[in-house]
Amino acid sequence: MSENTPDLRSFIGAVSPAGDIAGPVGITLGPRQALCGDIDMRIGLDGTWYYLGSPIGRKELVKLFSTVLHRDDAGEYWLLTPAEACRIQVEDAPFLAVAAEVSGSGETQTITFRTNIDETVALGAEHPLRVNVDPQTQEPRPYVGLARGLEARLTRSVYYQLVDLAVEEMVEDAHIYGIWNGGRFFSIGQLEE
User: Fold this and answer.
1) pLDDT at 1 (0 to 100)
2) What's domain 8-90's superfamily in CATH?
3) Could you give the CA distance from residue 136 to residue 139 in angstroms, rounded to a whole number?
4) CATH topology of domain 95-190
């Protein structure tokens, strides 16, 4: 096992038996990976990681766990090391986009996000922007795609930074409000007639 790969054996005491749990959907486990079941680890709405109900205070440890976090095709979150596969709970998105850097302007501008674990990701086809609207509050919930099926939810200040850059475009006969990045238009909402 690599020195950079977390060893989940120390957490096995907090794992529920794998019994009825199927493995990750759409992710093939290796022949040496044991399906451990659910581990008492969760990521809160604010991006805080918890183990046994207590926050994990060491950012370096959170960064280490983040390197083995995957989201399967069913939307479940898994810590996958060469030896173990443990399911964890995530309240919304596992990460937050806490800063955005904009280079250039107009249709050719480029936008790069920094997450709460100091990962940087350039907005684009491989890392798209999507915006859900909360059905009860009608508030937008914007996300940027990351690797391994993961996402980072944009913080309010980062989203407002994008709103300041947004322009109105006609897309398929609809007035769409969005941002340009590298010649590609990303919707952040539809305008009412």
Assistant:
1) 47
2) duf1285 like domain (3.10.540.10)
3) 8
4) duf1285 protein fold (2.30.270)
HSE-CB for 39 with a 13 A CA cutoff: 27
Task: Kindly give the pairing relationship between strand 49-51 and strand 54-55.
Answer: antiparallel
Contacts of 126 (CB under 8 A, 6+ apart): 145
> How many CA atoms within 13 Å lie on the side-chain side of 156?
2
Instruction: Please write the tens of the pLDDT for every residue from 79-135.
Output: 999 999 999 999 999 999 999 999 999 999 999 999 999 999 999 999 999 999 888
Mean pLDDT for the chain? 88
Measured CA to CA in angstroms, residue 167 lies from 33, 109, 132, 134 at distances of: 48, 13, 19, 22
List the structure tokens of 115: 């997450």
pTM for the whole structure: 0.84
Helix (H, G, I), strand (E, B) or coil at 164: helix
